[in-house]
Amino acid sequence: MKPDPQRRDLIATAFLTRFGAPPTVWCRAPGRVDLMGSHTDYNLGAVLTLPIGRDTWIAARPNHSNEVKLHSLNLGTDAAFSLDVSEKPAVPAWIDYVHGVAVALQEEGLPLAGFDGVVHSSVPLSSGLSSSAALECAAATVFEALGDWTIAPVLKARLCQRAENRFVGVNCGILDQFTSCMGQEGCALLLDCRDLSSRAVAIASGISVVICDTKSKRELAGSEYGERRVECETGAGLLGASCLREVTPAAFDARESELPASVAKRCRFIIEEHARVYALATALTTGERPAIGRLTAASFDGACHLYQIAAPPMLSMMAAMLAAPGVIGARQAGAGFGGCMVAFVETGFIDEFAAAVWTHYSAATGTQPEIYPVTAAAGAGLI
Q1: Strand partners, 295
Q2: Which residues are catalytic?
């Protein structure tokens, strides 16, 4: 991809100042926003996902050692780890995402080289746009380039997911890492999380995707994310299935009364959300505005009342988005519990929409949100 020269100069200057020589490798990986399919990925369902232009860059240079030394421009901090150490440190840190990737790659028998690196991300942290996956996939791409080997993008995604599951301790599905590795410029991806197949989904002309950041940060490792996953697995087991993907709406309706009330709510949301993924993919491609509005409204209603992942800032943002000019539909993004939300907006109304949402949300919460359109970006690779 063509780099942003100002961003490149910023990173290059920081690298030279810190390490005394210029970087030799530049890699990037995008964040993502899920357009439909909250929590369906770890239930092996479908997700409609968009890799976004907000991404993470790593500038690197081999240091001829077994040490990885990184500086984060976003956080203003340094961190390091040894490639000879596979245990997670007692104190969690942002570099755990890179260290975990190194461990996962080494478990595959891939040779790794130590390097000095500067990290810069335009993906807002802890916002639901997969800043962690972008860092993981960018790091894997650096190790790939410096190690002089290549792996298939799907395997790279799986290994980055393993890093987050086993090393970082977040039991996430494959959505974030798959999108960051497999993104295609100019289109959304319809991902089947059961077999990891995907197809491109075009968004009709005149419809734009706009991120609405509540500025309410979320932390998955300390949230109810893990609890929701356990409830889904419990429900699937009680229904005689290995995952909720295998449970049809008719089969669920017939046996819903056998489930504990909270488990039944979680299962209903996932089963209905899975169906909405395919319906929204069709509606976005054909430009059916009323269908987009109905589907996104149903998804958010389920997120609030069935999956119970809505936080107060999300409710305020939803009200602001739905009251703004040009809105077609709006819903939650990411895992919920705060962070970003997403709206489909008539392209000619983006500025008016953003101004209205900013004013409404700021007045309601006392917090200034960030509102910006996004377009589909390519997956992880060299810059």
Answers
A1: none
A2: 176
